[in-house]
Specification:
This protein is mainly alpha-helical and 251 residues long. It contains ten helices and two strands.
Length: 251
């Protein structure tokens, strides 16, 4: 059952949009998404079968084999999209590294691998990839990657995102679009509330722009600089809704 749950988790962290025709690797990425949803559909069918009182064992075994083949096809198309230069595929691969194998407890290694993939996506101009790379690089003390990640994010924001039609993309947390959770009421399950809070946020292309400018505004080396204020203004103009890092000047 843990294998089934692992497969299901992948669906929570990948975009379901159709790849933009002009984006690099769009054909292979589109094939990946088709294969991915076929894989997930078969996984859900298997889960439903497992819940039956008298499941058809032969049918179940055949479905298990099909799921294995689906996984092989999914991985093949994703790698082909990466080889063809798709930043969207790099970003998707990063999230699968982080979340698709809960049995792998080497979180440090998984995070390093994912952050490297985010950096590659950022270099190719994917704004959501550049955002994730900045989040990877906001460490204390700061490293050389801090400035590099912010430079890549600003470059992506200034150039526009050729992957606009591939959005939405999932991100762990968006400071501009924080989920509003009502206070725990009597009788409510606190664990369920935490699960809702921990769910990834799906960002559309313009929302990603807002989040990107907001992160640039959060430059702790010069929080009151003119550039930081301009970035914050751009974030609100792009549709930023929440001030998760409390960057608005106090009045």
């Amino acid at each position: 059952m843990s294998r089934i749950l692992m497969l299901l988790m992948v669906a929570l962290f990948c975009s379901s949009a159709v790849a933009q025709a002009t984006a690099p690797g769009s054909q292979a990425f589109d094939q990946f998404q088709t294969a991915f949803w076929q894989w997930q559909g078969n996984v859900q069918t298997l889960v439903a079968m497992a819940a039956e009182k008298t499941p058809d064992k032969a049918k179940g075994l055949a479905l298990v084999e099909q799921i294995k083949q689906d996984k092989i096809e999914t991985d093949r198309y994703l790698q082909q999209a990466i080889d063809d230069g798709s930043a969207a595929a790099l970003y998707t691969k990063a999230r699968m590294v982080l979340f698709a194998d809960p049995g792998n407890l080497d979180l440090t290694k998984k995070r390093e691998t994912a952050c490297g993939l985010y950096g590659e996506a950022a270099q190719k101009g994917l704004i959501i990839g550049a955002i994730a790379y900045v989040n990877c690089s906001n460490t204390i003390p700061k490293t050389s990657r801090y400035d590099e990640s912010r430079t890549l994010l600003r470059k992506a924001l200034n150039a526009g995102d050729v992957y606009q039609d591939v959005y939405p993309f999932a991100i762990n947390h968006a400071y501009c679009f924080e989920r509003v959770i009502e206070p725990l009421k009597e009788g409510e399950d606190a664990l369920e509330k935490m699960k809702v809070w921990a769910q990834p946020t799906l960002l559309e292309a313009e929302e990603a722009r807002a989040e990107g400018f907001y992160l640039l505004a959060a430059d702790y080396s010069s929080p009151t600089s003119q550039q930081s204020q301009e970035d914050l203004d751009n974030a609100w103009r792009a549709g930023c809704k929440t001030d998760g890092l409390r960057l608005k000047p106090k009045r």
